[in-house]
């Protein structure tokens, strides 16, 4: 009887995904809600042929050197900036992602960040909980979304998913991206392509929807913030290091930026060695101008189930001698 290949899963997955993998693999699980230490993952993966990783994980050359039998690393994720793809490819290890399931829930969350920040909802919640609400009286007026200009930086799958959901909000929509939408899409969505500088100058709300690559690291910095429309809002559901959090804090304190909402933070981007080790404290203390969520973009139970299942399929495809459907690069 042939020995089943070992597959290590670094974080909790749904029982149905475990059952699927157990049919052909010896599965080493972490069914706690905790992130394993790097040392523990290495210990478990030394003789493994497959590895399923998640956003809290970080893979680079020195890790791969300890796991010589690995054939596939399947990311239960879409953005892979915390993983050294070239190092995997050089060693003949497939690295796969799940590209098509995260756009919708991330767009949903972005709408929540927009409304929560723009309508001062957290501020209102605190007012009630502090015992300062005495019935209706004019207070906490906000700008809202109706007839405001919203600019989307990046029109990939995330940007498209967002604009599809914004159409009914009756906003003036702008976008910037090296690859333009089709004329038909621009017409249907009533959205116009402009330069980044024009978008920043004209938008009441700016939403970042770009991957973290060298060209987008600190895309929003002291200089680009200065070009933003005074008293505008910035929303970041993509990657923490696309912005300079300290520069954002300064722009809020000066009154130039009305507010900042984010689901992602610089401290999360493990591959950047000089990243800050915590969220900028000024952003935390500016409670009335900031709205934060703990990386909830894809945190929808059904979606997480499907993402893990797709990652598991990629593992099985490689171990069966096939090309995985989610491969980032072909070997």
What's a quick, concise take on this entry?
By secondary structure, the protein is of the alpha/beta class. It is built from 13 helices and twelve strands. Strand 3, helix 3 (61-65) and strand 4 form a beta-alpha-beta unit.
Supply database-style keywords.
331 residues, alpha/beta, elongated, 12 strands, five-stranded parallel beta sheet
Write the layout of secondary structure elements.
Layout: E1 6-9, H1 15-22, E2 26-28, H2 38-45, E3 50-53, H3 61-65, E4 72-75, H4 85-90, E5 94-96, H5 103-118, H6 121-129, E6 149-153, H7 157-166, E7 172-176, H8 183-189, E8 191-193, H9 196-202, E9 205-208, H10 222-227, E10 232-236, H11 245-254, E11 257-262, H12 281-285, E12 290-292, H13 301-319
Parallel strand pairs: 1-2, 1-3, 3-4, 4-5, 6-7, 6-9, 7-8, 9-10, 10-11, 11-12
Helix pairs in contact: 1-13, 5-7
Question: How would you describe the overall organization of this protein?
Answer:
- With 331 residues, this protein is α/β, with parallel strands linked by helices.
- It has helices at 15-22, 38-45, 61-65, 85-90, 103-118, 121-129, 157-166, 183-189, 196-202, 222-227, 245-254, 281-285, 301-319, and strands at residues 6-9, 26-28, 50-53, 72-75, 94-96, 149-153, 172-176, 191-193, 205-208, 232-236, 257-262, 290-292.
- Helix 1 (15-22) packs parallel to helix 13 (301-319) and helix 5 (103-118) packs across helix 7 (157-166).
- The longest helix is centred in the C-terminal third of the chain and has 19 residues, at 301-319.
- It starts with 5 loop residues before the first strand and ends in a 12-residue tail after the last helix.
- The relative contact order is 0.15.
